[in-house]
Amino acid sequence: MSAATAYRAVMSAFPPAPASPARTGPLRHLSIVRALMLRELITRYGREGLGFLWVIGEPLVFCLGVVLMWNLIRPEYEHGIRLGPMVMTGYMALLLLRHQISFSLSALQANTGLLHHRAIAVLHLYAARNALEFLGTTAAFMVVYLLLGVLGEVSPPHDWSLVFGGWLLLAFLGLGLALIFSALAQRFAFMERIVPLLTYALIPMSGAFFMASWVPPVWRDAYLLIPLPHAVEMIRAGVFGPFVETHYDGLYALGWGLVLNLLGLLLIAGARDRIEAE
Fold it and tell me: What's the predicted TM-score (pTM) here?
């Protein structure tokens, strides 16, 4: 495939829409994504009660439950590292990836009717769901961190830039995986059943519940060919500081993120036409 062909395939995912005198270009796209996020919140959680808070409460409850369980069945320290913050950072990272992938799978099928509005592109649907999961999980991460800090389980992050950089890098990788898996699910019906099973492979592949330094040196370089642990290790490097051994290469993971997202865009391109044909 030539560069020009690849460019046309990616840009076909952004169908032309009439420009508004008030909102044009990026502002128009942001306005559409924001509206879709609000619609998704109402559709998923309802208008009343604690529905809107549940987007934060759901990952919050799961994470606190996992941290509590580990504290009950495991020693406080392992390999010289306090398990509370290690499990918290790993589980929140795993939760972000799984939510991005699982909620993206049905993004197109659940909102097919919206594509009759030419202003709404296929990528708007994926952007809205991924942004919603990112914001919800990020807020839950902050609340969990604050609660564990009050309980004396964690200390303030040693380097905020590494924590934020690793978290954004992880979300970028998750977006690429979500686009790829969603595109495959559109083309092959059996993928909708297989992808949830494949997400369990993220547990060892992401390094959610162990440090890269715990991997035997003979296998560590091969393990770090996977981009996901680099983002998780960045987060932990920011939390623990230089006193804990971490292994990561942000540029390597960023390169993988660019490749995954480009491949996802190429696979998603033309999704509107396939739906209209069906």
Answer: 0.83
